[in-house]
Specification:
Helices cover 0% and strands 17% of the residues. The chain is elongated, with a radius of gyration of 15 Å. With 48 residues, it is mainly beta. The N and C termini lie far apart (45 Å). The chain contains no helices and four strands. It has one domain.
Length: 48
């Protein structure tokens, strides 16, 4: 009975970014390109 809640847990749903087509969590800044709602919010540098 203690583990009955585990079947309810799910992975977060992902959307595709309209700018770069990378997967991202909705209502968050895209980590690949830094865009949110059609405007650039973050400057993302390539490589690390």
């Amino acid at each position: 009975m203690r583990r009955a809640y585990n079947s309810v847990l799910r992975l977060p749903q992902l959307s595709t970014c309209p700018q770069c087509d990378a997967p991202y969590v909705p209502h968050r800044v895209c980590p690949a390109c830094g865009f949110y709602k059609g405007r650039q919010v973050l400057t993302v540098t390539a490589g690390a």
